[in-house]
Amino acid sequence: MRRALLAITGLAASTTALVVFKGSPGTSQVAQNLPTAQPVNPSGPGVEPGAPGTDPAAGTPTPSGSAKPSTSPKPGKTTARPSGTRTTKAPSAPRTITKAPQSTTRRVTGNGFENEYGYVQVQIVVSGSRIVEAVALSLPSGGESDIHSGDVRNRYDGRGGEVVQKQNANLNTVSGATETSNSYKQSLRSAIEQAF
């Protein structure tokens, strides 16, 4: 019974206090200016601001419970190495430079020779130590000379001509084109001497 009486008395007293507090002049103004939101704890829930192991200014945890916050290097700046230390680069594999094999094929032009029908000059193509092609750069032209020069060209020139077959200047003379054949042989001989 006592408990019930105390509960009723406590309830009545608190109701009275509440009525008095709300009804008194000037208290409504004060009540309106009271902050309604609690400050945010940057450390997160469960960590008391100012507790040991937190930064008092920011309320954030500090490593190892020390009072000072850790400082990290600023972006874009490098930290200095301790003096007396040297970083060395691992030796790289030696470079091997391989050159493309040079072509052993070359063109050699013989001296030009003039005869009573015109000018004759020969060029040979040499691969290694062999003649692989012969070309008449200049032969007499005009009239019958065109025909005779064509005969000389057909017999001596090209990859399958007499020059490539014999590999020297000891060629058979073309019938009807003796002068042109001899001038061809002379120019060919000078080209072979330059090549070998």
In a few lines, what is going on in this structure?
The chain is α+β, with helices and mostly antiparallel strands.
Fill in the keyword field for this structure:
5 helices; four-stranded antiparallel β-sheet; rod-shaped; 196 residues; alpha+beta
How does this model look, in words?
By secondary structure, the chain is α+β, with helices and mostly antiparallel strands. Helices cover 33% and strands 14% of the residues. The protein contains 5 helices and 4 strands, in the order H-H-E-E-E-E-H-H-H. The chain has helices spanning 2-23, 27-33, 144-156, 162-166, 178-195; strands at 105-109, 113-115, 118-127, 130-138. Strands 1, 2, 3 and 4 form a 4-stranded antiparallel β-sheet that branches. The longest helix is centred in the first third of the chain and has 22 residues, at 2-23. It is rod-shaped. The model is unreliable at 27-31 and 62-67 (pLDDT under 50).
